[in-house]
C-alpha cells in the first residue's frame, strides 16, 4: 500500500481537499474511486487475528496468617512477626494476558510476567476453543515465555516473524490483544521510537515504542507490521492511571526469535558473552576523546579470558556500532550482542585514539571459570545466612551483573539471619575482610571460621566499594 493511498485515506476521513504542506510532497485530494474509499486494515486483521490468543494463568498464593492483631500491618511494623506461629491461608490468583501463535503445531510466545509462577495456564483461541498449555521456555531477562498446546495434528494459523531492524520511526503498526478481558481488539498507530533503552521492565532493554493503544491484557499480544508479520510482542505501557496514554513498548521480533529458537531446539538459552564492561559516552567524554558527538560505550574493564581481550580491545576504546547498528549506551550494546546466536563473529566498530577500526568479535558462550562452588555460610560471623558463590562469566550471565567481575558474590540472604541484619544484599561482591583479599568461596569460609573481636569488610555494590565495621 503506497504513501499516496494512505494520504487519500486521510482525505476521505476528513471529507475535504488538503493543501500541500511541504515542498516536494504530492498534493492530496479526495478519493477518486469507491476502491480508494474502502481501503482498510480489515484483510490484514482477518489474516492475523486468529493467531493471537488469550492466556489465563492461575497461581496459588500461600500466606502465613496469625489472626487478629498479628495480621495488622501497623502492628507488624513496630512489633515484627508473632512468636506464636499461625496458619497458612491460600488464595487463587488469576491473570489475563495475550499470546501469539508462532508455529502451526501450537508454539505460542507471550510475556514472562503473564505466566510467572502459574500452576495452570489456559490458552483460548480466537474461535473460543480452550487448551491446557505447557511452559517450554521462560526468560525473565527479556520478559518473554514460550508455551505449547497439543493441537492433535491440527495446523493452526500462525504469524511469521518479521525483521524488527527494518522498522523506521513513522511506520504504521497494529496492536492485537485482549485488553481488560473484553475480547480480541485491534488498535493502530505508528512506530514513535526505536531502541528505547531507559524502560526498566526487563534486563535487555531495546524496545519498540508505539502510540497504538496498548492496555492491560494486551501483554504478550502481537505488534504487526503492514506486511502482516510479527515485528514485536507488546510488553508494557507508560501510564499514570493504568490505561493507555499513547506510549506503549514492545520487545522487538529479533529478540523474540532467539527465545523461539531455544524452544524449538530444546537447548538451554545461551547468549554470547560480552566479556567487558563500560559506560555510555556523554558530551564531556566525547570532547576529551575527540568524538564528534556523544555515542558508543567506553570500555573500562575486560575479562582476561574473554573474546573482547582476544579481539584486541582495551580500556579506553569506544564501541560505537555492532554490525551495521549504532549503539548509544550499554543497554543497546548488550541487546545487539544478545540477539545474535553463539558461534561465528560480528564486526564491532571501535573508536581508538582518533581512528575508527573494524574489530571481529567472537560470539562465544560465557565460561564457568572459576567453578561457582555455591555455599551457605553458617556459624558466628557477619556472613552467617548468606549464600555465596564464585563470580564467573556464566554466573554473571544468569544473574545479569558485570561479566568481568571477580571474587565472591552474595546470591541470597536468609531472612532474620546475621547477614540480613547487617545489610548484606544479593549481588554484593565481598572483596576484603580484615585486610585480607577474598578471591574465592574457600577464602571466605576460612576467614569466617576464625574469631575476631572486630570485623572490617569491603563490599562492592552497584559499582562502588563500601567499607563497614562490625564489633562482636
Summarize the structure.
This protein has 472 residues and is α+β, with helices and mostly antiparallel strands. 18% of the residues lie in helices and 35% in strands.
Write up what this structure looks like:
There is one protein chain. The protein is of the alpha+beta class and 472 residues long. The chain folds into four domains: 3-39, no CATH class; 48-269, Thrombin, subunit H (Beta Barrel), CATH 2.40.10.120; 276-362, PDZ domain (Pdz3 Domain), CATH 2.30.42; 375-471, Pdz3 Domain. The protein has twelve helices and 25 strands. The protein has helices at 3-14, 34-37, 42-48, 73-79, 112-115, 253-265, 283-289, 307-310, 330-338, 393-399, 418-421, 441-448, and strands at 52-65, 87-103, 107-110, 120-124, 130-139, 144-149, 172-177, 185-196, 207-210, 222-224, 230-237, 248-252, 276-280, 297-302, 318-322, 325-326, 345-352, 355-362, 375-376, 386-390, 408-413, 429-433, 436-437, 454-461, 464-471. Strands 19, 20, 21, 22, 23, 24 and 25 form a seven-stranded antiparallel beta sheet that branches. Strands 1-2-3-6-5-4 form a six-stranded antiparallel β-barrel. Strands 7-8-9-12-11-10 form a six-stranded antiparallel beta barrel. The radius of gyration is 27 Å and the shape is globular. Mean pLDDT is 82; it is low at 1-26 and 77-85.
